[in-house]
Amino acid sequence: MNNLFDPKEQNGVAKARESFSGRMLTNRQFDDAMAITGILEREIKATGKFKEKLSDFAVAFARTEKFDVMKSETIIRDLYKARTGETMNQTREKLMDREANLTDEQKHGAYKHAKEVGQMIKHGNKISFHRAYAHVAENFANELGVTDVAAKSLMKEALKSVEDKDLYEWGKEQEDKYYRPQIEAEKQQRKTEHTQTRQRQRA
What we know:
This protein has helices at about 5-15, 20-25, 25-45, 50-65, 70-85, 90-100, 105-110, 110-125, 130-145, 150-165, 165-200. The chain is flat. With about 200 residues, the chain is mainly α.
């Protein structure tokens, strides 16, 4: 979910609690169901999809709470709408519409964000390419109001266009150059500390 201390989020949670589906649940059931709506919202914003994950969580929630699966899915859908003010599909469609209507100016920032992945690996504390790529893409996606997948695609296209480099291969090169040595140094340090500890124990 969004920041739990955000007034808008708190208001959405209150509305969900007083909704038809929300009133049927115990506090624990409601908290679990709300956590699921947050996971689904994050999934939609990341990938633009939700049905498979919704189905998985509906089954799991039904099994532990002894609901039938259809009722479980209905509860999750109802609480999501009450909390966010829109259905899951409306959230998805809104992201898709923004992606389809991006301006050239908005897309122009993709190259800067692609290069930021390398900077994050280089200057960060043991940050892998996968982690840096996901972090930067999420921030870029939030700026544009699109999915993380769309943001990653724009970044990949931009680096290819400007430098004729594949973002994944380039990122892995940055990882090998800056991240791997940090990990190897950490392993060596742990090995040294372990050896010193054993030596002190024998003394």
